[in-house]
Amino acid sequence: MEKIAIVYFSQTGNTETMAQLIEEGIKSVGKEVEVFTISDFTTDMVENYDLIAIGSPATGTEQLDEYEFEPWYTDIKDKLTAKPVVLFGSHDWGDGEWMRTWHQDAVDAGINVVLDPLVVNLQPMDDEADRTRDYGVKIANL
């Protein structure tokens, strides 16, 4: 991938930390990457990137945030079908159901999800931080 965007929504900072670690992994192999919150990334920007990595935490009862993230994702979903996409996010409890549901929704929408989604419990630390950085390297090497 030549130019990569990491776009995330974070409530407690855990998914933001994941975005930063993924960015570190991508940069470690010399690839160009930019990081955005969902409020700073518009549908018009999709065409400027070769791959889009999207992060969101689980909220409520293992679901995507319905107030900020879902409306943004619904607006951008059709544009994402022309790009390789990866999904990542953090959760506090549960077994990752929100990510399985989100991943299936993306696939059903025709989005080319090119890696298995990365899921971390709470904030990535130690081995989880290393795994998250490594995910960035995998993205860069696609």
Explain what you see.
- This protein has 142 residues and is an alpha/beta fold.
- The chain has a single domain (3-140), classed as Rossmann fold (3-Layer(aba) Sandwich).
- It is built from four helices and six strands; from the N terminus they run E-H-E-E-H-E-H-E-E-H.
- The chain has helices spanning 14-28, 69-80, 97-108, 127-140, and strands at residues 3-8, 32-37, 51-55, 84-91, 112-113, 118-121.
- Strands 1, 2, 3, 4, 5 and 6 form a six-stranded parallel β-sheet that branches.
- Helix 1 crosses helix 4.
- The longest helix has 15 residues, at 14-28.
What's the number of helices?
4
CATH superfamily: Flavodoxin domain
- Architecture, according to CATH? 3-Layer(aba) Sandwich
- By DSSP, the count of extended strands is 6
Overall helicity: 25-40%
Most strands sheet: 6 strands, parallel
Distance between the termini: 6 Å
Beta-strand residue fraction: 15-25%
CATH top level class name: Alpha Beta
Radius of gyration, in angstroms, nearest whole number: 14 Å
Going by helix content, strand content and strand pairing, the class is alpha/beta
Poorly predicted spans: none
Shape: globular
CATH topology: Rossmann fold
Overall pLDDT: 95
